[in-house]
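Side project, low priority. Logging it here so it doesn't get lost.
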Amino acid sequence: MTNWASVEGIRGDLAGVLGRFRGGGTWAFSFGDGGPEAVMLTYDEFEDLGGEGKFTVGDEVLEPAVLAEELPRLMEAVRAGSGAPVVWGEDGEPEAVLMSTTQYRDLRGDDHPPAGVVDDPTVRTYATEPLPSSKPLDLDEWAARMGPETQELLEELRREDREGS
């Protein structure tokens, strides 16, 4: 089971969050009380994923101290499913963004989990089982589909391998 940082834990460590983001020591992460409720990500990621075009964000960049003071109120809005992403950083520089997990999924273009399912959108898991129609790769079959040049290259590699053995 994943342990999420609490709202109070994040509230008391905003300088540490910025430090880890600046140093590349962390990626986007979820936090909340009892499960993932909100996501903290770098402003660069937000911008790279087109966040300014997908969401209405204020012109103001909150200072960490102001965010710490406002975080309980902002989390109420997150829990209620309202509110816009909040851009914050030091000295008026946009460095990080606080948003709901739903907004983060929308930012990334990810699917939303079924109602009632606790899911951390910053952690990806992928099915690795083969499909029922899957079959082992046949190199000769693959080379044939790629064309005569690939078949010739494969034969050449095999000859070199036999000669080298």
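Brief comment: The two ends are 49 Å apart (CA to CA).
Revisit when time allows.
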